[in-house]
Prior knowledge:
Elements: H1 12-20, H2 24-33, H3 39-46, H4 50-62, E1 66-72, E2 77-82, H5 84-103, E3 114-115, E4 122-123, H6 158-164
Helix pairs in contact: 2-5
Amino acid sequence: MERTSFAQMRCSLARGLDMIGDWWSPLIIRDLFLNLTHFDELVEDLGISRNLLTRRLKSLITNGIVERVAYQQRPVRYAYRLTTAGRDLVPAILALTAWGDRWARPREGSPILFVHESCGHQFEPTVTCSVCAAAISAEAVKPVPGPGGAAKPGTMLVAERLRAARPHKPVA
């Protein structure tokens, strides 16, 4: 079954998901973040088929999320590393992991805990406001129209509804 492409949608979430690919990709990104950088390590850790991993890595490389770097010349062997775009995905992966810990945690407990290197404390990943640092919840967010919103696939109704809503006035 061929997957639908979201690349032409007028929605940053859809286009981002199109770049990431499928359910395996966030797990591959997580493993690369956890320094499992060799193909065989990824196969073993994830239990993914070699063919599927090859396709996912190729797509992640094409989309600028992962890079392939030679670490041995004879025979040539490669390691996979997150690019800047891939590293920028890590907070989103951590937030999804925290959500999974809350709503789908294995009976035995969280498989991975996170420690903030700067302060040395274990933490629960959260999304915060980039201005005031308050935690973000669904109830604390008001979507407003952006300059790229249009009645096109991905935001066909959303753009119109946001425009019809009261305009947002930033706090001075």
